[in-house]
Automatic annotation (TrEMBL):
<feature type="region of interest" description="Disordered">
    <location>
        <begin position="242"/>
        <end position="266"/>
    </location>
</feature>
<feature type="transmembrane region" description="Helical">
    <location>
        <begin position="42"/>
        <end position="66"/>
    </location>
</feature>
<dbReference type="InterPro" id="IPR050980">
    <property type="entry name" value="2C_sensor_his_kinase"/>
</dbReference>
<feature type="transmembrane region" description="Helical">
    <location>
        <begin position="481"/>
        <end position="513"/>
    </location>
</feature>
<dbReference type="Pfam" id="PF00672">
    <property type="entry name" value="HAMP"/>
</dbReference>
<dbReference type="GO" id="GO:0005524">
    <property type="term" value="F:ATP binding"/>
</dbReference>
<keyword id="KW-0346">Stress response</keyword>
<feature type="transmembrane region" description="Helical">
    <location>
        <begin position="665"/>
        <end position="683"/>
    </location>
</feature>
<feature type="transmembrane region" description="Helical">
    <location>
        <begin position="763"/>
        <end position="783"/>
    </location>
</feature>
<keyword id="KW-0378">Hydrolase</keyword>
<feature type="domain" description="HAMP">
    <location>
        <begin position="60"/>
        <end position="112"/>
    </location>
</feature>
<keyword id="KW-0418">Kinase</keyword>
<dbReference type="InterPro" id="IPR036890">
    <property type="entry name" value="HATPase_C_sf"/>
</dbReference>
<dbReference type="Pfam" id="PF13687">
    <property type="entry name" value="DUF4153"/>
</dbReference>
<keyword id="KW-0472">Membrane</keyword>
<feature type="region of interest" description="Disordered">
    <location>
        <begin position="329"/>
        <end position="385"/>
    </location>
</feature>
<dbReference type="GO" id="GO:0000155">
    <property type="term" value="F:phosphorelay sensor kinase activity"/>
</dbReference>
Length: 882
């Protein structure tokens, strides 16, 4: 698919295909789920996740070249020019990648030439400097006399050094890409004669003969042309033997060079010597900077000469000598172009010389190299975070999370196991196994999997998912599952504050988006090492072969067919689609948790932010004291009611004592929870001076103490109400919840006194999980049934209708403590509820409480026998009440 997508030559078309594929995927999955009657809460996240997966699969190849460009650019900033962008895309991104590679190659060449230039210049400057220094030291020490000969030698070295520096200056001006050309009619012979005189005056031996017409006028910049002539004549004189002469010829037109100077107004010039000549393979190299052939030159003269020729639109090159020996250097200049204003710079024209001598303008813009550390320090402040890094910012940076193919495989295995083994009939052992498998897959990936906090949270999460196997009460099972998720995720992210715990819960669904690049790296969705197409093809062909030949052989051989029937579950269309959605959901949820564990979000990004303290103490102190006063008034009212007794309450409110204490239980629970909020806000807005701290601890200490009295009053009131009207699981749960809030308030007081406030969020989280584990450990439904039967023994009052609403957890208690006929009427609806046959016959839904409930039904003769009729039960109720 990736290779086919690369053949699309338009980025707009690719984006259109990407959007269309994502939309079609989401719509088809939604329609499929609707047709199979899969719950919308399962269809929606799976459809979104798979649409994002399709987007990532198609978009990974589109953005891979851009990511690679970013990596190579950063490497270039550090001085590494070896990186390249490899892609087969033909769209605008592919074209950009090709241009980027060309630029990288040019920069690599320029950088290499720069290093060579520095090394060569250092060598060339060191040679005359060393010689001149030695000669001057000898003169200064009196080793040699200061006669004209020795002084002349030192002067020669100084002049050589000066010529080298002058050549470098001229070359740097030419390579800057902008020079001033003062074109005018120049008498070529006169200019050549002046150049010859300058070369001979510099001490160059030999003779130079001219064969140029006196009246030949050419269009050129005389200063630049003299620079060219001096360099080529000096080069020829150095290479010519002492007994020979250098011949300079020139004329109008093309001569015999047939170069680009063809046409009226063109002219040519040749310099011929009888020296060793230039080998054909070296005729371009000698024009490179420092491309000397070892004859004693600097290696810059011919480079300067060629640049001047190219600035005039001409060429300078070596040709085969007519006599077969020596060197023949020819300059061809085309017809004079319109003269440029002396004040206007003329940019050098395009060149046709080899790559080593081409494009001086590109070289001129190459900045000087910087050390790697300086380069990084300079670019770091302006670096942009691309893609999802820019979206999530510092809340969730990509902290080098390694690719985790094994993590993806483990998550996929958890999803497949859930889709295959999870029971749709009832919550049972497979639900616990799936939850444990998902947790193990994420824990093995966690960065801090050996951290005590992470391990403690994982242990608590394990205990919280056990009720799905041990108990039948659905509300305990679901509370345990939710609490296990919250505790486990807080453990792998290392949340320490209330805001961090809340952000952890938000980060889990966001991981499906944040982890997409990591998911792509793990599967190698794009790039040269991509294995996804091969894996997809292999899986598709394997499944096709299994389905086709398995079906043929199953129909051809009854024995083989029976084996297939035993191995393959008999699923309806709805079951198959539902299990597919379930497998995808569990896979995505596990993968999100694994990525969150591998690369935790900075959930404490808000934890370090403390609002500024209020300037005036009364701004926070007065509200706290007002709340204290309200609590004092309430406690006084409670004490008055306690002292006055039921008669006072009846006369004042018209309520019985039990109704009175029960009426405000919910409000007291809310007040307790709000007290924790008041303490948190006040502690963050109070000042940090010693006096502020004393007022804070005093006012909040009083508030917490009064809150504990409220908690005690609420728990006592609920106990009185339960003694009067019986026990329910809801009343039991709110008792536990109120008790947990009281423990949190007590922890606040202890932590404030010990200065351990930073541990409070974790204490509250762990204590809440422990409270829920303790609630599950007492088996709430069975405990409530037992307390109600105890109350019946004491008062002869029993809410039979409520007992009928309890789960199978209460069945053994009811069967054991009630008369058989009464127990049969109480438990008669269980076979159509939690103990329905399809739940009991499904081994994947095995549950300890339902297994014990089934035994209780057998004890009261409800296992497969007809249930008592309404008339029979009415008689039983009457006799039981009497």
């Amino acid at each position: 698919m990736s290779a086919w997508f690369d053949t699309v030559s338009s980025l707009k078309v690719k984006l259109g295909i990407l959007v269309a594929a994502s939309v079609v995927t989401a719509v088809l999955l939604s329609l499929l789920g609707s047709a199979a009657r899969v719950p919308a809460l399962l269809v929606l996240p799976v459809s979104v996740a798979l649409a994002l997966g399709v987007t990532q699969l198609l978009a990974a190849g589109m953005v891979a070249p851009l990511r690679r460009m970013t990596e190579v650019s950063r490497a270039m900033a550090r001085g590494d020019y070896s990186g390249r962008v490899r892609t087969t895309a033909t769209d605008e991104v592919g074209q950009l990648a090709a241009a980027f590679n060309r630029m990288a190659e040019d920069l690599a060449t320029v950088d290499r030439e720069r290093r060579d230039l520095i090394a060569t210049v250092s060598h060339e400057l060191r040679t005359p400097l060393t010689a001149m220094t030695a000669q001057l030291e000898n003169l200064a020490d009196g080793v040699v006399p200061a006669d004209p000969g020795h002084l002349g030698d030192a002067l020669d070295e100084a002049r050589r050094l000066g010529r080298l520096v002058e050549d470098l200056l001229q070359l740097s001006r030419l390579e800057a890409g902008v020079v001033h050309l003062d074109r005018q009619d120049v008498a070529l012979r006169a200019l050549v004669e002046d150049s010859v005189a300058q070369v001979l005056a510099a001490g160059r031996p030999g003779t130079i003969t001219l064969d140029i017409a006196d009246d030949l006028l050419v269009g050129a910049d005389p200063a630049r042309l003299r620079q060219l002539l001096v360099n080529v004549l000096d080069n020829a004189a150095r290479h010519a033997p002492a007994e020979t002469s250098v011949r300079v010829t020139g004329g109008a037109g093309t001569g015999d060079g047939a170069g680009p100077g063809a046409g009226a107004g063109s002219w040519w010039l040749e310099v011929v010597d009888e020296g060793g000549g230039v080998a054909p393979e070296d005729r371009e190299r000698v024009f490179d900077r420092f491309g000397t052939d070892g004859a004693g030159g600097t290696g810059l003269g011919l480079a300067v000469a060629r640049w001047v020729a190219q600035l005039h639109g001409g060429t300078l090159r070596f040709l085969d000598p007519a006599t077969g020996s020596g060197a023949r250097l020819r300059l061809d200049v085309p017809a004079t172009t319109p003269p440029a204003s002396p004040s206007s710079p003329t940019r050098e024209p395009a060149m046709t010389a080899p790559a080593s001598a081409l494009q001086p303008a590109e070289r001129s813009v190459e900045p000087p190299a910087r050390p790697a550390a300086q380069s990084q320090a300079t670019t770091a402040p302006v670096r942009q975070q691309p893609g999802l890094d820019g979206l999530f910012g510092r809340f969730w940076p990509e902290n080098g999370a390694p690719s985790g193919l094994r993590t993806v495989v483990a998550a996929a295995a958890a999803g497949l196991f859930a889709g295959f083994a999870l029971s749709f009939n009832a919550v049972g052992i497979t639900w616990t196994l799936v939850a444990i498998g998902c947790g193990v897959a994420a824990l093995l990936t966690a960065r801090g999997r050996r951290d005590p906090w992470t391990l403690a949270c994982a242990g608590l999460a394990l205990l919280l998912v056990l009720p799905m196997t041990l108990l039948d009460a659905w509300w305990v099972q679901m509370l345990g599952l939710l609490a296990a998720t919250a505790v486990f995720l807080s453990g792998v992210t290392g949340a320490r504050t209330l805001a961090g715990i809340l952000l952890t819960g938000i980060s889990w669904p966001l991981a499906s988006l944040r982890g997409l690049p990591w998911f792509a790296r793990s599967l190698r969705l794009a790039g040269t090492g991509s294995r996804t197409p091969a894996v997809v093809r292999t899986t598709a062909w394997s499944l096709l072969g299994l389905g086709v030949f398995g079906t043929i052989f199953a129909s051809a051989n009854p024995v083989f067919g029976s084996w297939v029937d035993q191995l393959v579950p008999n699923l309806t269309f709805n079951d198959l689609v539902g299990r597919a959605f379930l497998a995808c959901f569990v896979f995505a949820a596990t993968l999100g948790a694994a990525y969150l564990a591998l690369n935790p979000a900075d959930v404490e990004v808000l934890g370090g932010r403390r609002p500024p303290a209020l300037a005036n103490r009364f701004e926070w102190l007065v509200p706290v004291l007002v709340v204290d006063a309200v609590f004092v008034a309430f406690i006084a009212a409670q004490a008055r009611a306690l002292v006055g007794g039921e008669d006072y309450i009846q006369a004042t409110t018209g309520l019985t004592y039990a109704d009175f204490v029960h009426q405000g239980f919910g409000q007291l629970t809310l007040a307790t929870a709000l007290t924790v909020l008041v303490v948190w806000v006040a502690s963050r807005r109070a000042g940090s001076t010693p006096e502020d701290r004393r007022w804070l601890y005093g006012s909040l200490g009083v508030l917490c103490a009064l809150t504990l009295l409220v908690v005690a009053s609420a728990l006592r009131g609920m106990a009185v109400y339960q003694d009067a009207y019986g026990f329910t699981t809801l009343r039991l749960f709110v008792d536990v919840f109120e008790g947990w809030l009281g423990f949190v308030v007590l922890s606040i007081m202890a932590a404030g006194a010990a200065g351990l406030g930073r541990w409070l969020p974790r204490i509250a989280l762990v204590s809440g999980a422990v409270a829920l584990i303790g609630l599950a450990a007492i088996n709430p439904d069975a405990w409530v049934a037992g307390r109600n039967l105890d109350r019946y023994d004491a008062t002869s009052e029993l809410d039979v209708r409520y007992l009928q609403t309890l789960s199978a957890d209460a069945a053994p208690v009811i069967a054991e403590r009630l008369p058989r006929d009464v127990a049969r009427c109480v438990l008669q609806d269980l076979p159509s509820g939690s103990l329905r046959p399809e739940a009991l016959d499904d081994p994947r839904a095995w549950n300890l409480a339902r297994s014990r409930g089934e035994e209780a039904l057998a004890d009261v003769d409800l296992d497969g026998r007809p249930r008592p009729s309404a008339e029979e039960c009415a008689g039983v109720w009457t006799a039981f009440d009497e």
